[in-house]
Amino acid sequence: MQKDSEIIDFDPMARGVAQSGVRITNERAVLTLLALNPGASNADVARLSGLGPQTTSRIVAELESRGLVIRGDVLRGRRGQPATPLFVNPHGAVAIGIEIGWRHFEVLVSEMSGKTLASVRRSYAWPDAGSIFGDIGAEVATIRSGLTDLQRSRLAGIGVASPSYIGRNIGLMGAPAEQVTLWNGVDLVARIARDTDLPVQWYNDGNAACWSEVVLHASPRPQGFAYFQVGTFIAAGLVANGELWEGNGHAANLGSILVCDDDGAPTYVHLIASIVALQRLLTKAGIALPNGSPFNWDWDALEPVASKWLDRAGLALARAIICTRAVIELDTAIVDGVMPRDIVARLIDRVRHHLAELPTLTSDHPSVEMGHLGASASATGAAQLVLFQRYFSRAWKLFST
User: Fold this and answer.
1) What is the pTM of this model?
2) Could you say which of 135, 159, 209, 250 would form a disulfide bridge with 378 (CB–CB 3.0 to 4.6 Å)?
C-alpha cells in the first residue's frame, strides 16, 4: 500500500457523491481511485472519494462481486485495524478494438490491464467499402469464439478507430471513384454494430493511438504530450492537462501543420513524413514500390532513398513539435510508426537532431520518446477507450505523480 503522502487524489468533479441515483458515478469514482492508487484500503478510498465508510464498503463489495475489484493480502503490524489492499482486476473486463487504416485493418481484444489477448491484421491497397465489413465481421466472430465464457460475459463492446474522412481522401490511395461514393454513404458505427450485435463507439485513429500511450506509459506520466504515428499518413493526438484532447472527435490533426519542402514551398507534414511521401521518393528514384506492410520491407534495398526520407521526415516532425509546443504546453513528444523498431529508432534520432538545431524562445524543447505499440496503437487505444468510458471517471488526473 502507498503511504498517505503518495496517495493520488483526483478532480472534485470525479469525486463520489452519496445521494441516491448516483451509483454508477460512485462506482466509477472508486475504480478510478484504485487505478491511481493500487493497494489503497477501504478507508483510503472513503477519505479520497468523499464517500462514507459504509457506502464505500458496499460499493467495493459490489465491484468485487462483478469481478472488477480484487483484494490483496491483509496488511498487519500497523497501528489500527489491519487493512486490506484493493486493486482493479486486470482481467475484470475486455473490449474489442478495430482499426480501419488506409493500407490495413486490425482487430484485437484487450483486457483492463492493456494486455492484448488476440489480434489479426490484414493489408490491402485501399479499404474496399464493398468487402471490408464482411472481413472485419468474420475476424470479430473468430476472436469472440476464442474467448472463455467468463471473458465473453465481461465483453464491454467494440471501439473502432479510423481516419476521420475516408471517403474524402481514399482517391489518394489509388482507389476507383466509386469508393468515394460508397464510403460517403457508410455509417461505421451502425454497420459494425449491426454485423456484430455489440455496442460500438467510433474514435479518430490518432486520438485512439494517443490514448494507448496514456494507458501504457509508466508513472510519472507527462502532464502533456503530442503523439505522432508515421504511417500511410500521420496519425496524431494530444494530451493536455491530463486529458485527451478530442474536440468533436477530429482534433489534433498535427499532420496538417504547414512546413516547408526542400524548395521552401509550403506543404503539409503528411506529405513529407509519411509512408506515402517515401513511396513518392522511391518512384522518383526508379525504385520499385515494396508490397505489403512496411514491417516486412527490405529497408536496406531502399537505400539511399530511405535515409533521405528519414532525415526529411525528422525535420518535418521536429518543426511540427515546435509549432505544437507554441500552442499547448508539452513535456514530451512521442513518435512511433508502422515500421520495424530499428527504423522508428532511426527516425527518432533524426527528429532529435533537427529539434536540437531549431531555435528556442521562451521554453526548452520537449523531449522525444518512442511509442510503445507501433502499428497496433490505434486498435489498442480504441479498445481501451471503451473500457475507460464504461468503467472510470471522466475527469481523473491521469498524470498525477
Assistant:
1) 0.88
2) 209
